[in-house]
Amino acid sequence: MLAANGDGPAMPGISDVLRYLENEPVMLHALQEFINMTQQRDSLLNARLTEVERRLAGYEGRNAQQ
Fold first, then answer.
1. Which H/E stretch holds residue 58?
2. How far apart are CA 63 and CA 66, in angstroms?
3. Phi, psi dihedral angles at 30 (to 5 degrees)
4. Distance separating alpha carbons of residues 64 and 58, to the nearest angstrom
5. Domain regions of the chain by residue span
6. Residue 2 in 3-state DSSP?
7. What's the pTM?
8. What pLDDT does residue 34 have?
9. How far is the CA of 43 from the CAs of 30, 36, 38, 51, 63, in angstroms?
10. 3-class SS of residue 21
11. Which domain of life does this protein belong to (predicted)?
12. How far apart are CA 63 and CA 61, in angstroms?
């Protein structure tokens, strides 16, 4: 696939990517696993951040009282 101006390869469109994944089930499975692992990691990091923010608010509250 060439860019519209013919200068080199263009970025594939989403339909090209989807067509590729339909034809390559191993790659589709690998992408799904990567997305699942990324979502799990993000959920864990968000949970940790929430806990740290809660603890920090507690420390700030104690310091304000002193």
1. helix 25-65
2. 5
3. -65, -40
4. 10
5. 14-65
6. strand
7. 0.64
8. 98
9. 20, 11, 9, 12, 30
10. helix
11. Eukaryota
12. 5
